Amino acid sequence: MAKRLEATPRVLVIDDEPDLLTLMRLTLTKLGLEVITADSYSEGLAALDRGTYSLCLTDMQLGDGTGIDILAAIQSKGLDLPCAVITAFGNADNAVAALKAGAFDYIAKPVSLDQLRTLVKSAIRVPEKATTKVTVNPSQSASDENPLVGESAQIVNLRAMLIRLAKSNTPIHIHGESGTGKELAARILHQNGARASGPFVAVNCGAIPETLMESEFFGYRKGAFTGADSDRDGFFQTATGGTLFLDEVADLPLTLQVKLLRVIQEKRVRKVGSSVEDDVDVRIVSATHKNLQELVQSGKFRQDLFYRLNVLQVSMPSLREISSDIPVIALKILSKLSGSGDFVLEPDAIVALARYAFPGNVRELENVLERAIALAEYPGRITASDLRLTVDANPVLRAAQPDSGGGSGTLAGRVPLQDYLDRCERETLELALAQTRDNRTQAAKLLGITFRSMRYRLERLGMRLDDE
Question: Among 358, 296, 300, 293, which residue's Cα sits nearest to residue 325?
């Protein structure tokens, strides 16, 4: 879809959930867009009559109408207005219906702010001045902005392994759940190796249409097909001298897997429409959340390519496995999102985060905190209620609730209560001390306890600092 050229694009957002409407308005405003909101189908129709827009975002269910009705109204009015629909999670039928009705895309609830920004930028031109606000310090590298923070044994060992593996030129495969930081690990490998001065090219293999994959990966010559009006390099040529990161490599079709294997073996690529091959010099780092060995056994991934990519393997821990690092990771994310570090987590918020399983891992944690900043009830403070973490949707929170089944519940495999409480208390104290730069008086005030109580708790947990 062609990007629109309005100096200040205006976006119409239609949703009957006040919190989501507020969150989307704040997020899009930060992108430098003018945002008009409507909380019902009828209000949305009135807004369409009152002005012109570059983009429309509408919920599927609006109480007095549907997103399909909004799409129909846009078409009946003859408006040249791209529209995307927000659907309930996992409701594929609604998504398909929206696309058939004329929507250019859809996004599922709970709304990921990263996906929302990507969707908007695919439809309209976002002002350049707004895109620079995302970076805390434009002079920093990607790994400086998003360091692999944490002091758990898993993270300490992972950092050491990545630095060690960065020195080699061997293909590396990174495995881990979605949102665990696989691309961040790939960037650390690149920036700490001999190719750090070369390009780092990240490719989402699952986002490229199969018909375009060969030309995108290997490039093409002018006239190779309709629309090829000039020569173009592919990912391999662009990444020469650096690192090519193949994210979600399991999504590559078998036809391209064969060609990719040959390129890795021969270190030469042939552009579409060319009769000659070009030398390429890239380091391959691949990643996926899927089990490649199982895909090999089922015939969905080539065994020879698997062995080529999986020479060395790195496993990214889920956030559930490094729950002791959640406070420090959350603090780093808050500092990045707020730009000033002015937001603090209240003790009840820290406990809520520690008890949540985070199926979306660090990416979900960032999304939760960004939403909390936008909707925080008290300026500069985030409480458990601001996080809006639901019990029913999370096995860890659900397991922590009192058993209502007449005593049929079990504590087998649970952490002993005192150990769990000590861990939460230690994490809270560490975060308070970090935020006050080890000023125990200020930390005690922040936590709402006396200085004497602060000293006692530090001593009991073996955290007491030497007196100044």
Answer: 358
**pLDDT tens, position by position, 66-105:** 999 999 999 888 888 889 888 875 566 777 778 778 887 7
Residues in the chain, total:
468
Token pair of 301 as six digits: 């991934």
Q: Kindly report the average pLDDT of the chain as a whole number.
A: 80
Measured CA to CA, the distance from residue 112 to residue 56 in angstroms comes to 17
- The answer to whether the beta carbons of residues 15 and 47 sit under 8 Å apart is no
What was the pLDDT predicted at 181? Answer: 92
Q: What is the mean pLDDT of residues 204-232?
A: 84
Q: Is the pLDDT of residue 44 over 80?
A: yes
Q: 309-325 pLDDT, tens per residue?
A: 998 999 999 998 888 88
d(CA 262, CA 244): 16
- DSSP conformational letter for 3: P
Q: Which structural domains are found in the chain, ordered by start?
A: 10-133 (3.40.50.2300), 145-315 (3.40.50.300), 323-398+415-460 (no CATH)
3-class state of residue 288 by DSSP:
strand
- What's the rounded Cα separation, in Å, for the pair 175 and 314? 6
Identify any residues that bridge with 124 across adjacent strands, giving them in sequence order. Answer: 4
State both tokens at 149.
């923070």
Q: pTM above 0.85?
A: no
Amino acid 319 reads: L
How much is the pLDDT for 347? 83
Which tokens sit at 371?
Answer: 């939403």
Asked whether the beta carbons of 56 and 11 are under 8 A apart, the reply is: yes
CA distance 105 to 110: 16
Q: What is the rounded distance in angstroms from the CA atom of residue 25 to the CA atom of residue 29?
A: 6
